[in-house]
Amino acid sequence: MSKDLYERAVAISQRAYAPYSNYLVGAVVQTKDGKIFDGVNVENAAYPLGVCAEKSALVKAVSEGYKPGDIAAIGITASPCGGCRQWLYEWRIGEVSYSRADGSIAQATAAELLPDSWDLPA
Ligand code: THU
Q1: What is the pLDDT of residues 62-97, one digit of tens each?
Q2: How many angstroms separate the CA atoms of 62 and 52, rounded?
Q3: Residue 120 Cα, ligand 1 centroid: separation in angstroms?
């Protein structure tokens, strides 16, 4: 299922705003009730202010009312960075499909991508 999301992420990556790195990233999330939200990386001349594609897709879902545990899967055209892995973990995404640097497609859970992860103490 999330291989299809990966293909959609490849298509949407063309909308990325990445004039500084020229590295276009797309991400597509699917909610458990079947909604789809696309995201792209959005860079800024003040470089640290840029936003990753995974975050921009998740933010769209969140602003539509989705909560941690409501997202079934995400497809990403890059191996998620460390910060995005923390986001994917917070949202408890069960299927993450992404392309590795060598072009192969990997699939993992968010928890597998962030071993020995940190949580706020209850
Ligand atoms: N990027 C993402 O959008 N997601 C990732 O997981 C890896 C990196 C973006 C951030 C920046 O705009 C560009 O790729 C180069 O780092």
Answers
A1: 999 999 999 999 999 999 999 999 999 999 999 999
A2: 15
A3: 26
